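Support request, please re-run this one:
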Amino acid sequence: MSLRQPSINDTAFGSITVEQEEYRHDIFITLNGKIKKRKKKLSKEIYGTSHTISLPEVQHIFEEGTEGILIGSGQYGVAALSDEAAGYLLEKKCQVIVLPTPEAILKWQGLEGKWIGLFHIAC
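Re-run finished. Output below.
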């Protein structure tokens, strides 16, 4: 079953536009299409930066039944998934795609199935 996900219209350094609404902070999109503010502090507390996506942050956004997580790693692709977070998703049999955010929003439009999106809008 494929869920209808919101359409991501555009991204630029410091912003992302979803369903014609501009957000000036990192976001994640849940399985049911809700747009939420990314809890970067979950990663900053461990790594001192939100450029490494931590296990607690991934556990926060993961939902049972998720087939994949698409990560927009920033305008220049600086953000990365930690080894612990990648291992957790592997255990959950959850696909992971990490692309610079401009490429990730293009990929998002064509995804089928149950996907969560996490989008870093700077670096």
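The longest strand covers residues 68-73. The beta strands are 8-12, 15-18, 21-23, 27-29, 35-37, 52-53, 68-73, 80-81, 95-99, 115-120.
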